Amino acid sequence: MQKKHRTDLFLIFFLILGFLLTGCGLPGSDDNLIRYNISANVDNLDPQYVSTANETLLILNCFEGLMKLDENGKPITALAQRYSLSENKRVYTFYLREDLKWSDGEPLTAKDFVFGFSRIFNPSSPSPSAENFMGIENSKEVLSGQLPASRLGVRAIDERTLEIRLAEPDSFFLELLTSPAAMPCQEDFFLSCNGRYGLSLNSILFNGPFVMTTWKSGRYIGLRINENYYDLETLPTVAVNLYTIRPAEENAQLLLEDRSDGGPVFYNDLESIEGYPVENFQSTSHILVFNPDNPAFQDNDIRLGMCYAINRQFFQPTMEENLEITNLLIPPAASLLGEPYRDLAPNITGLVYRREAAKEHFETGLNRLELSKLPKSSIICLETGQHRYLAGYLQRQWQKDLNLYINLEALNETDFYRRLRSGDYQLAILPVDLEQPNPGIMLRQICGYLPNPALPPAEEETESPSADDSGIPEAEPGEEPVHIPQPYSTAAEDRQTLERYLTIANKENAAEAAQWYAKTESLLLEKGYVAPLYFETHYFAVSPKVSGIWFTPYPGYISFQNAKKK
Predict the structure, then answer these.
(1) How far does Cα 168 stand from its chain's mean position?
(2) C-alpha 413: how far from its chain's center?
(3) pTM for the full model?
(4) How many domains does the chain have?
């Protein structure tokens, strides 16, 4: 009897263990498990402070705001059941759905949105998205510390009614409300986290279709259905594991081996996964940017000379099909309230190869700067794909047409963006993604690379300047000393003009806004502040056994809300 009793205990133990493993959603344990490879760890799940595509992906599946994007890129109501807009188009009133809850079962109210928006403009640590929301009344004053957060133009009229006041009308404000920074935040819970909000599973609340149940750094992140979601009956009975351990280069092989149900794939992998459903979006612009603090590149003629000396036809025959040369800034995936931007603004004159004009502008700039040649400079680019190879074409063209010698540094992603953030570069080939459908957000990002001559001059250094501190490398032995007089620049006036164009665009309908965005794009090109080089297409593949994963051109905007295993 004792032996049989022991056997029964072992049987019960393994039955319970099997049940627990399935319930915990360990990899491969669930027939309804969607396996998706994101290839990188996620360190932060604070919606107001996300900065990567993978963080955005998690936020948009585990949180929901007042609005969300539909499959055509148009904003539709989410937690807001409906909204109204005042006659002057500056005051939005949102009426929340009934019985909204956080993942812990506590009520979600309009006050949670008020607190979430106030965090965007925290003077001591502003959100990376603060610039996008500066249209909210008093946001600039709150951000600068001139006014308290209570004066921000966001207030809860009652538990289910939220009012947002804008300083100026913004036709695309509803679209902004679909971004992670516009998600609610429960103040009492936030304060209880003692500065660790969003950094671990026990320091975050969710309100979207999924909740995170597992967060294993270097392995995977587990998502399961949120039982407190307001529209629970519409959700599929699936679980999602987002794997972080496998590099993106293995995604196609993982699909072929039935070890993954989807993920981004590379152009070179498409042939091997022929027959698998694949979606693609031309949503990234690779552009040449100049260090805005470098006095030589503050000169309009120096920049225009280098921009006009780019013959894109020279490197087109060698480009893979996922890259397409362009003389425009905004990629085809951009849209305005669901209408393709390029259809609304088709007549922009882009930068083209003009050899004689390039020489004339460049020599004019050198003469003004009293130089026979530019100080030693380098161009940095990403080492992946064809970027290093295509940067080499620019080197050769500048050497041939302008007698300009530029060094090339191909860097891994971490070092590349570190150099950009620190200003430790002279030239860079920068990939710029559409963060949202509206091209205005991308144009504002690009405007950040304009020279800013209004900045006060740096204090005198006790040591000779170097590439790390001045933006102009010191002269090599035998070279003429670096002497940069006042360059010719209209950047201060142009910054004001560009800001005016972008502000006016936000007040207009889609068709009229497109014309103002086009004027912005044209001015950036006419003055050679940046030079577009090529668009890049991105690919997403899924297993034939899976349906309903919704992809968009915007980094991280991927939804599993309707995903199903066939």
Answers:
(1) 25
(2) 15
(3) 0.84
(4) 3
